[in-house]
Amino acid sequence: MIDYEGIKEIQPNRGFYNKEFEKSMRLCGFRARMAWCSLFAKHIWREFGIVAKNGRDYRAISPSVMETYRTFKKIATQRIPRAGSLVIWQHPTDKIHGHTGVVVRKIDRNTVLTLEGNTNGRGVREGDGVYLKVRKFRETQYTFIGFIPCRRNRAFQKYINERVNKKTNSWL
């Protein structure tokens, strides 16, 4: 199992230093020069067998964040869902582009811990790798659109318990 946090891209969006990860991302549709936050979410759903609340799986996640949102719009929610669900933000001035992350856990009613691809330490959407991010989801440089809730997934929860909680408990 890959330890996702810390995976770095060969900039700008040309591939990844971790070739095992790059191979899996290519199976999800990644090609050089593509923005890849949505494809990272697709990879996580594929890797862990996560399924949306409506039964749709990773194949419904598009390289386009906003297209992915439109696909799942009927089940989108404003309430923080369980680990593995997607969080979607839209660019405030460009209604075509956005950013997505995978919910790791709720911190409080306005804050989530996410696992995100194509971001950086500052949280921009065109970053350099995979990061755990603490997000006040209504107070980012993007407009919060909603969460795409998933069904309970034991494999992803186990990953969180084994890999993520050890790292984050000391700084949350």
Would you spell out the secondary-structure blueprint of this structure?
Elements: E1 9-10, E2 15-16, H1 19-27, H2 37-48, H3 65-72, E3 86-90, E4 98-108, E5 111-119, E6 129-136, E7 143-148, H4 154-168
Antiparallel strand pairs: 1-2, 3-4, 3-7, 4-5, 5-6
Notes on the structure:
Helix content is 26%, strand content 25%. The chain has 172 residues and is an alpha+beta fold. It has a single domain (9-167), classed as endopeptidase fold (from Nostoc punctiforme) (Alpha-Beta Complex), CATH 3.90.1720. It has a five-stranded antiparallel sheet. A two-stranded antiparallel sheet has the order 1-2. The protein starts with 8 loop residues before the first strand and ends with a helix. The model has no long low-confidence stretch (mean pLDDT 90).
Radius of gyration: 14 Å
Strand content: 25-35%
What is the helical fraction, as a range of percent?
25-40%
> Which CATH architecture?
Alpha-Beta Complex
CATH class term: Alpha Beta
- Quaternary arrangement of the chains shown? single chain
**Helix- and strand-based class?**
alpha+beta
Low-pLDDT segments, ≥5 res? none
Shape type: globular
Task: Please count the helical segments.
Answer: 4
Strands side by side in the biggest sheet: 6-5-4-3-7
Note the gap between the termini. 24 Å
Largest sheet: 5 strands, antiparallel
How many domain regions? Answer: 1
Q: Please provide the count of β strands.
A: 7
CATH topology: endopeptidase fold (from Nostoc punctiforme)
